[in-house]
Amino acid sequence: MKYTHKNFVEDFPDDAACLARIMELRYGNEPICDKCGKSTHFHPITGRRAFACQWCGHHVYPCVGTPFEKSSTPLTLWFHAMYLMTATRNGVSAKELQRQLGVTYKTAWRIGHEIRKLMGERNELNGPLSGHVEIDETYIGGKATGKGRHGALSGDNKTIVMGMIQRGGPFKGQIVPDVKRRTLKPIIRENVEYGSTISTDELSAYNVLPVYGYQHGKVSHRQKQYVNGLFHVNNIENFWKHLKGGIRSTHMSVSPKYLQNYIEEFGFRYNHRKEPGTMFYRMLSHLAKKETAV
Fold first, then answer.
1. Are strands 51-53 and 59-60 parallel, antiparallel or unpaired?
2. What SMART domains does UniProt report for this protein, alphabetically (predicted)?
3. 126-256: which CATH architecture?
4. Lowest mean pLDDT among 30-39, 145-154, 246-255
């Protein structure tokens, strides 16, 4: 089911509704007061992002430890930005957030940056990938030289990203300093379950995979081979195409310093592509996974 803007406005009409949801996520429906130890009901405190215990008056501040902690921006604007970034295929640029929210560019940029970090809190995906996994690396940003693999020399200013997609399942990706065996091997062993089938291209760093218990097959793009029986990397290459196209069309360019956050953002939407109507609430639920502050 699609989660529309009308649904969003009905669920979060004001800051009080947003704050109540944050409180519920972080303390649950039957909270225990840390000070008096009793099962309690926390009452909202007028004019503050805080609640008070009905028995001892102890104050709790549910926004502490979240992206909203030190922000004076209304929670409704934060939630609206979160909705926009889950409702659009390529995300939203800081300039567009500035227009939509009516805030300064600096504020819009920070909101977008913090939401991308929240998208990266994908704790439900911390387990290893399994089954048949496609692994590939790509080069993002900089200026292509027209020489070498991917049209880039190893010493240019492009950023290398390694990605893994479980067929029919989730994506994981991260920036890497190079594509040498010593760099890629530990990442694969940490993120792909022992015994899984792995598809890659012809990069020599992957040749060691059978030694570590993986069934490995590859395709040779240099020989114009894109499918080799069960083995191909078409899904991960389609992800790279969407990521790069989204960055170019929506964000124009991305600094290497923050590229990982954009990888997480696009990965989040990819991983929940089968249930797009749940994306907003799934991201919101990540607030509960942070350490609760009082």
1. antiparallel
2. DDE_Tnp_IS1595
3. 2-Layer Sandwich (3.30)
4. 145-154
How far apart are alpha carbons 224 and 136 in whole angstroms?
16
Nearest to 292 by CA among 41, 23, 79, 39: 23
Q: What distance in Å separates the CA atoms of residue 106 and residue 294, rounded to the nearest whole number? A: 29
Check if the beta carbon of residue 163 is closer than 8 Å to that of residue 138. Answer: yes
Sign of CA dihedral 22, 28, 33, 38: positive
**Spatial CB neighbours of 170, under 8 Å, sequence gap ≥ 6:** 125, 129, 267, 270, 271
pLDDT per residue as tens digits for the range 37-77: 999 999 999 999 999 999 999 999 999 999 999 999 999 99
**Cα gap 111→103, rounded to integer Å:** 10
Residue 272 has pLDDT above 70, yes or no: yes
Q: What is the domain partition of the chain in residue ranges?
A: 5-119+278-289, 126-256
Query: Which residues 6+ apart lie within 8 Å of 175 measured at CB?
Result: 159, 160, 161, 162, 256, 259, 260, 263
Tokens of 33: 């007061």
Structure tokens at 177: 């300093």
Q: What DSSP line would sit under 3-64, residue for residue?
A: --HHHHHHH-SSHHHHHHHHHHHHH-SS-B-TTT--B--EEEPTTSS-EEETTT--EE-TTT
Reported pTM: 0.89
Helix (H, G, I), strand (E, B) or coil at 273: coil
Owner of token pair 């994506």:
171
CB 158 within 8 A of CB 171: no
